[in-house]
Amino acid sequence: MERRALTILGATGSIGCSTLEVVALHPQRYRVHALSAHRNVEKLSRQCLRFAPQYAVVSFPEDAQLLSGLLREAGRQGETEILVGPEALCKVASGAETDIVMAAIVGAAGLEPTLAAARAGKRVLLANKEALVMSGALLMDAVRASGAVLLPVDSEHNAVFQSLPKQPGTGGLPAGVSRITLTASGGPFLRRPLAEFPDVTPEEACRHPNWAMGRKISVDSATMMNKGLELIEACWLFDARPEQVDIVIHPESIVHSLVTYVDGSVIAQLGCPDMRVPIAHALAYPDRMASGAPQLSLAQVGTLRFEPLDPERFPAVALAHQAIRAGGTCPAIMNAANEVAVDAFLSSRLRFDRIPSVVEQVLRAVPVQSADSLAAVLAADAAARDAARRLLHSATGEHVS
Length: 401
Fold this sequence. Notes:
- Among the domains are: about 5-150, NAD(P)-binding Rossmann-like Domain (Rossmann fold, 3-Layer(aba) Sandwich); about 325-400, Rna Polymerase Sigma Factor, Chain: A, CATH 1.10.1740.10.
- Helix content is about 45%, strand content about 15%.
- It contains 16 helices and twelve strands.
- The radius of gyration is 21 Å and the shape is globular.
- The termini are far apart.
């Protein structure tokens, strides 16, 4: 079997690290072609020493110098070529040597390299929510035009994919499908009194009960904005209308999503809450291979609970419904405002309960345009970030960079 070349965008994050764990189990199937990191150079250096990629991409020249020094100290200078900046990300994502791209950069920074991989006809394993949220039409058009294969890695969308009879991006919901239901754990504050939300700390918000995730996505899980982003993703991936996508609270995170058919059948994908499962599925599709995750024992789980989402506790979901229905650049505006608000919360400049309010005010302030080009999407993203920063500055009296 010829080994397939894998590029991991966002290698030092939780998805990137889990992907490398899966790859390490199957050295005969995959070789690591390129790895990227934003600022975690020491972890990237350890990954380079173990997997010997042809390329390593960092964001800043000073980080390239640091990485070069670490590899030189280990006696591995020259084995991995170090590249810098957004253009380098697009190069390793679209280059002829790459077969598979794991798109795991968090936030809007992952948009352009993900689009580059899709336009180059790669197998794109999509863990970056923002690529579809910001520019769903552009990404899906690129997939169809190039013949790329787009496979979802988010546990919820991967579960929907496994419960459908065909892969996403191939022309609408299959006949006979009635509804898609995304499950949500409810995060760390499912039972916390609403009166205590103003006092929530970043450390508490990042302490997810079931999943080990990065700080930004952990906060999104706590506000349930992640479910709003996933709703928008589902509409694009599976060509579903917003009213065909439901969200249900499922605290155990065992049932990852469900598909309801017109005859009343409901097909769901179950598994332990471990991202190595959807990663292994997307890597090996249409085959199956070991993920390294534990096998699910329903007898040990015992009880699976489900309950409706409380819109008062989680107003971010309604904002996502509003954004996908408005269309155009509205989802990009929502996403950008949320990124700025979450960053402000994580740096203790904004109360937790104010995150949805900032997003809502930015949605009212920034005009929605057609999202018919990458330039239009990026312009909306910039306008929304500027509006969110000005809003935070006026509210706190502090400069928000």
